[in-house]
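Collaborator request, handled under Task 6.
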Amino acid sequence: MTKEFKAGDKVEWNTSQGKTQGTVQKKQTTATHIKGHQVTASADDPQYIVKSDKSGAKAAHKPDALKKRS
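Structure tokens returned to the collaborator:
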């Protein structure tokens, strides 16, 4: 079962520096670019645009990479 998130949800994910926390900005269902990287999202394989609490940077993550915070 695919995880579902909505804009404003507080989430965390793993990075090479450890866990990072942020906020879901939106569900991405079309291809786009973020920081020069291709995001290959689609309606069948969506990704979520999240904004890091620490750096303010935006990134795209697959649903399984995110965990909702309490």
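The cover message to the collaborator said: "The chain has a mean pLDDT of 94. Residues 10-65 form one domain. Please let us know whether this matches your experimental observations."
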